[in-house]
Structures are given as structure tokens and as C-alpha cells.
């Protein structure tokens, strides 16, 4: 067995790869930008994305556009800080794209959740945050905008615990908010990090810390606020969960930090703690067992995201992959497990602040995008290992909304099929075909209805095809797991529909759960599954 090269091992150990998730406007972009500022990747705040265009978001659709704008231009950002090499994965901020978020989380080793202190966990992001807990990776909470009037701290923590079902452990604690925001109290160090204005955060700002028992504190913080802090700490120490790295690593306890990304306050403190508490690239499950990046010398990676038409003029398609082990070199030949043949990975790129750049090398933990000539699917494994293996797949979420879709202009059938198939391959929607009708009727299934808007918009704008959508009453989908099923003989309820997916697997659409039960009763031995693996 080839030996693991120490240089590669050290590179991998330096990696920290996390996803950042938030409700739109909570401050994800601002926080990311400040991370880059501390990492020296940008010189001044304001260069990550042009706010001018995103500011005029008027409708839900514009909101998607904005989201798409973010994920297209800055899907992954890499920067160095304090000896670490950090990869940040951006996620869409709307619950209708929670499947996309789940796939991105598959590529991350931890997640940072940004919450607006005046709003707590917001309705639209509930589902999204919940998806985070499904992955059992460490979740870190940054409660942002403390320079504005905030909700009560206990209420905020309670909100997170109730919504996500995980315990919280505040690492620091805010002293006041809005005009009365004085800073945060570091519970372990028993000191106050004083809030300072950093000219809207264009400079890194000086961090000033004073021990809480230092007499100077009386000059810096009013009596009433000091008393309140003492009372709150007593309550929290008595009732709150204690910090436990083991629980954090299992995703059962979320360390919470308070700050204000806009003014740079608490950002570096958060980054420093976070980097110590999160983990380097973790072992991943493959069909032959666990693959540990510290032991596996060969390159291996899996595709978690496919983004088509990033550049309309070139119709290029980029497959984003998470490197799980070894070293990547530009132009290297790897074995594509699902395709069953060797491929050369060309035009590898990474994001650096607002630019895409070509790269020569990357290591386990990194995320790279490679040119995809249309051969990759989400979940595919690539490796240089002689002993071939495949990483466990990324499950597709069961769609909850269905529509029959057809092109308005019958002459555009070819473009329509091409466009809808490509968009489905990217995982932006799922498509199904009715039995015995050929490709005439296409049924689209989505997890969130905004995905329908994206489909319509993209078909019109990228493929020049206008479509008509008729919504269908189905709400439940079940894949048939029996290998030898005779679909013609399968007896279900009259309102059930028999369809097959992109890979030809048979499945059933139901309008209600009663119908599922009836079908199961009428067909002995029928094995139905909610997931299309
Ligand atoms: P997002 O990526 O999560 O959608 O949020 P983004 O960072 O774009 O921030 C949304 C708005 O909130 C921005 O204001 C941003 O300046 C502001 N913001 C972010 N962090 C803080 C904070 O700590 N305190 C305060 N007071 N505001 C914060 P905007 O008006 O939409 O844009 P801009 O014109 O200020 O750039």
C-alpha cells in the first residue's frame, strides 16, 4: 500500500471546511466578507459582492436571483488565517432550496448559522436550519447585529433550542444591545471584550479586553448593566448546558457567539474559537468502509453540486467536488466510478474573494470546481485509488409539489427536453415520466415551489423555451424497491400515478397517505421508499 506523504498530511490537517447558512439579510455576506478581511484575502470590506444590484430585491423571484447570484459567483471561498486554510461554502437562504443546502452540507465538516439578533430563528429558514441538524455535524451560531436593538438573550437561545432541537452553549454573552451595546462577556476568561466602532468595519479594529473584576469596569459599564450581567450569568450557569467538545463534535450542542459583523465586532473572536472547536477533514463513509484522509494516500472526491450555464455565452457546466483524501493536481486522470471509466479533470478552479482562479493543487478538505462535459451526477465518486470505491450517495429529498410541464411552441421540443434534462441533472428539480407515454408528458417534482419559478425562468432565459405548467394534486412520492416489479399489474387507487424517474426507476405518486396504505394492502410484498437513492 502506498505511504501517506507527510506534506500532504500537513496540508490536510490545516483545512477547515464549513458551510455558512442564514436567513436572507441576517448578515451572511457581511460576516463572510469580514472573515476574508481578517484572512487578508481582501483589502477592504465591500468587495465580496456588489450590493447595488442585490439591494433592489422586490419580489420573491428577485430574491432567488439574488441567491443564485451569490451561489454562482461565490459558491466556495478559500482563505488562510492563523495557519489554517479555510473553505467557506455558501448556501441559499430560502427554505425552498433546502435540498441544495443539504447537498452543500454534505461537503462541509461543520456549519455556521448566522442569526439576526432582533429576529431569532426566522420562519423561512426554520426548515433550512433543521436540515443542518440532519447531518449531525458541528453547528456554530453567530448572533449578529448586536449593534441594533436585540431580542432578550435567553429568548434567543430558547428559540434556537426549540426550533432545532439542539442544546446551546453561549461562549460569550452580550452586554446590552443597540445604543446600549457595551460588548460581550467571555464566560471562560471572565472578561469583557469592549464594543468599539470600527468605522463600519472597514478596518479590523482594536480588540480591547478588560477583566470583569478589574475596577476599571465600573467606569466602562454602568451599574445597572453590570448587575444585569451578573444576574444573567448566574441564571445561565445554573440552568444552561456546559461546554462539551464531544457534544459539539456530534452536532448536539451549538456554541453561540454574539457580535456585529458590520462593525467587525466579535468576528475575530468568533473565528479564533470556531477554528479550535471545529474539526479538520473527517473520515467519510464509502462502500468499502470508512476512508480516513489521514490514512488514505490516494486522491478521492465526490460531486455535491453541479452548476450549469455559469457563463451563458459558453454554456459551461461546472461540477463542484469535495476532495476527501489525497492531493489533486490540475489535469490529473482519475477513475469515475459511476461512469466506469477514467476521466481527466480539466480547468480546475477555486474561488478567491470575487474571482474565479485556476488552481494547480488542492488537498483533502478542499472544494474544487471542474469542467463537466455532461458526465457527472450529484453523488459521483472520483478516485486514483487502485482499489476502487464509491462514497455513500447523497439522498434526494422527496418532492412535495408536482406539475405537468410542456413547451408552448411545439417546434422547440428538442431545446425543451435538453434544458429540462440538464436542469434536472443539476439537481435543481426532479423529473418524472409517465408510463407508456414516451417523453410527451413530463412531470416535475420539487421540494419547494420557488424551484418551479427557477425552472421557468431558466428555461426561458438559458434555453429560450417558454413553458406551461399545470399543477398536479400529488403530495407524496414513493420509489418502488422491488427489483422485479410488473408496473402494468400493480393495482393501486384510481388517483395514483405510475411514473419513472430520470434513471428509469419506477415510482408512484399519491394524493394522500390513505392511498399509499391502500396500494400497499392491495399489493402484497410491495416495498416502497421515500428516498430515491
Ligand atoms: P445576507 O448575506 O445574510 O443576506 O446579509 P448581508 O450580509 O447582505 O446583510 C444584510 C444587511 O444587514 C446589510 O444592509 C448589512 O449591511 C446589514 N448588516 C450586516 N451585519 C450587520 C450588523 O452587524 N449590524 C447592522 N446594523 N447591520 C448589519 P443593507 O442595508 O442591505 O446593505 P448595505 O447597504 O448596508 O451594504
Automatic annotation (TrEMBL):
Keyword Transport on entry: no
Single GO biological process annotation from the record: regulation of translational termination
Keywords: Cytoplasm, GTP-binding, Nucleotide-binding, Protein biosynthesis
Places the protein is found: Cytoplasm
Entry GO MF terms: GTP binding; GTPase activity; translation release factor activity, codon nonspecific; translation release factor activity, codon specific
GO cellular component: cytosol
Coiled coil start-end: none
PROSITE patterns, sorted: G_TR_1, G_TR_2
Binding of GTP, residues: 22-29, 90-94, 144-147
Residue ranges occupied by any Tr-type G domain in the UniProt entry: 13-282
Pfam families: EF-G_D2, GTP_EFTU, RF3_C
Principal subcellular localization: cytoplasm
Function: Increases the formation of ribosomal termination complexes and stimulates activities of RF-1 and RF-2. It binds guanine nucleotides and has strong preference for UGA stop codons. It may interact directly with the ribosome. The stimulation of RF-1 and RF-2 is significantly reduced by GTP and GDP, but not by GMP.
Family: Belongs to the TRAFAC class translation factor GTPase superfamily. Classic translation factor GTPase family. PrfC subfamily.
Protein name, UniProt field: Peptide chain release factor 3
